[in-house]
Amino acid sequence: VTSLDKDVIAPGKDAVLVIHFDSSHKVGSQEKYVYVHTNDPDNPELRLRIVANVVSPDSPLLDTTFAGQPKAHFLETEHNFGVVKEGSLNDYIFQFENAGKGILKIKKVRTSCGCTAAVASSKKIYPTQKGTIRTELDTSGLTGKISRSVVIYTNDPGAPLITLMIYADVRKEAK
Known about the structure:
Elements: E1 2-4, E2 17-19, E3 28-37, E4 45-54, H1 60-64, E5 72-74, E6 78-85, E7 89-98, E8 104-111, E9 116-120, E10 124-125, E11 130-138, E12 144-154, E13 161-171
Parallel strand pairs: 6-13
Antiparallel strand pairs: 1-2, 3-4, 5-7, 7-11, 8-10, 8-12, 9-11, 12-13
């Protein structure tokens, strides 16, 4: 599943493309492709290759590869605000814990646009300690169904980048 934060990208600007790979019911080497269609005459179609090695939850690799390391465990990675009024501020708190044995460091938190803000409760989370990422979505000037991403950069060797998604259906008059 993919989500692009902008449909139009101005010259010299960038956009965030979030790719979600569901490893459920998959084990071993995986190779998937995402195709991006553009109006660039030199590159009308870009093919992005996604490669992963999926190990089963009971694999001995999981027990020893990251022993003594931090492990960021988010209770959820998506939130849908549902129908919201244009111009409203909407906030949501994502909860997580350090399920590993080392100190989890939140290195950086990056949002996909200026309409979204995100702040970590702490930069260091000790083993078994809980933390939060508070997100805020400002719907001023937005309409329709939107999706925004928040990328968390960590020192978790199993998940150095964690993507949180927020969704909303922005309307001029919300119920």
